[in-house]
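Box S1 | Example of a co-folding query
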Amino acid sequence: MNEVMKLMQSHNSVRSYTGESIDETMLEEIIACGQAAASSSFIQAYSIIRVTDQDKRRLIAEASGGQSWIIDAAEFLVLCADMQRVNYASQKSGQGELQGYTEHFLAATVDTALMAQNMMLAAESCGLGCVFIGGIRNDPQVTVDALQLPEHVYPAFGFCLGWPAQRNAVKPRMPVSSVLHQNTYDLEAVSSQVDEYDSLMAEYYGSRYSNAKSSDWSAPTTRAIQGKRREHMLAFLQARGFLKR
Ligand SMILES: Cc1cc2nc3c(=O)[nH]c(=O)nc-3n(C[C@H](O)[C@H](O)[C@H](O)COP(=O)(O)O)c2cc1C
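Box S1 (continued) | Returned holo structure for flavin mononucleotide
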């Protein structure tokens, strides 16, 4: 493995920060690294809202289920999928207005996620610790109102960055053989792969140095995903100008 690969495989989300600030130039370089990601049809369909106003941060933290690291992080960025510029460019070049196609929602969302992951890696390479905040989708209108987001823009997730005060152990991922299929999808292998991973994660959770617990992967993960249906999301995204057809 080279140094970049080692860095990638040492990722863990950091939710506890020293109070130290991040140099402005470093932050700009991290954002430029995000922008260097590949982009579907080169639409670059994202905007980053840097939230320095602590009142706004508190509001968003509360709407995200009380995630205090949103307030404590040196920087809190809201990563938005943004078709506003593409909509303008489309009309400017005679292609007409965007019409809220599902494909355009996917393109903008994937662009935003790729940009975000590039930023996270760049930040981690500087020694910073980070965590994404999907919790803003608990009540995304709070973020829309606080940040005055226009139509064709939706807050996909937040991004906390800071100098780590505490790090968790790296969580073991599923083995490559579980996620890599050869030519066709290996449906029969799914149950044994999940069972094996449950054992691995039970061992990890039971023996980790902080927050040790008795748990496998299946139970907490599915409790989390089934508990986060966020049924408001379809109507919310449609009101933002996405997923209309
Ligand atoms: C899109 C996205 C949203 C996330 N939202 C939250 C969040 O709201 N709060 C949080 O503490 N962690 C959040 N996480 C972090 C995950 O919980 C974390 O990545 C996962 O448990 C794996 O742990 P690791 O990143 O430490 O390896 C999010 C991760 C992603 C990719």
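The longest strand covers residues 153-162. The first helix runs from residue 3 to 9.
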